[in-house]
Amino acid sequence: MGLVLAQPAFSFSGDEEKRKMIIPPFLKRGATLGICSPAGHISMAEIEAAVKMLQSWGFEVRIGTSVGKQWNTFGGTDEERLADLQQMVNDPSLAAILCARGGYGMVRIIDRIDFSLFRKSPKWILGFSDITVLHSHLNRVVRVASMHCKMCNSFPDDPLQADAEQKQAIYSIRENLMGSKNYSFPSPIPNRTGVAEGELVGGNLRTLETLAGTASDIKTEGKILFVEDTGEYLYSIDRMFWNLLRTGKLNKLAGLVIGGMKIRPDDPGEEFGITLADIVMEKVKDFHFPVAFGLPVGHQKNNVAVKCGVRYRLSVNADEANLEVL
Known about the structure:
CATH class of the largest domain: Alpha Beta
Number of helices: 8
CATH topology of the largest domain: Rossmann fold
Radius of gyration: 19 Å
CATH superfamily of the largest domain: Murein tetrapeptidase LD-carboxypeptidase, N-terminal domain
Shape: globular
Order of helices and strands: EHEHEHEHEHEEHEHEHEEEE
Strand content: 15-25%
CATH architecture of the largest domain: 3-Layer(aba) Sandwich
């Protein structure tokens, strides 16, 4: 009933990250994208706007069996979500897989996905939030690049009525599927200047914390780490940055990028008293890599697409930064 546990579908040796990263090919008009819901449930009506937009870009769309299903908070039972995602992972006719929404559920099935055919016929997997589990696993174990971006439940019902931020975020998906997209972004907090080059990794900070010590735990040495989160108290964000520090993820980092952080107000009488900038800079004070605030990724309207596992150059000035695909 969605609670069947099994041995992982992969054999993890710890040396997977030494393999060369595979970059899926860019898409062309006529390519087919699959939509599935490996985490939370979503209705057919809720993906309609995304389907129409993808079709307007010249793509064919194939809707998976998990869309429209519901088992508690999930898009079907663990077995149903696993079967749908596995079928799409194996299907060589699909050029990309767009996760319909986040929520929770990816960690319940990640160890049972067989990626052996996927490495032979790689494709872009898109999503964010809970899909950070999948991005991290693809990076650490499978060594195939993926895309951190909005999902179906964030596409505007009427693109003509969307504001500039919504348009930037949505169209950045198309730009990154069909090529590469670079970003310049102002910082609301003074940056620590510098230049870094490396593979981009990261995602939702809370999810990264829960993956520490698992097979899907990302390696950060020589890489650019980006993080975002939503609905967390400042003390919780502080704890998560201590986790990054104590697990060694900051030791040999090339660069750090802070995305959207929707902070929950402190409870009256329980004020933390330390700002986000203080939290971050305290943890990186013994290192010398550049730190940039304000990358438009995360649980927000302007959530642009970036590619996990692809090499970027991060150039940071005091009040703005550039993220450029190499």
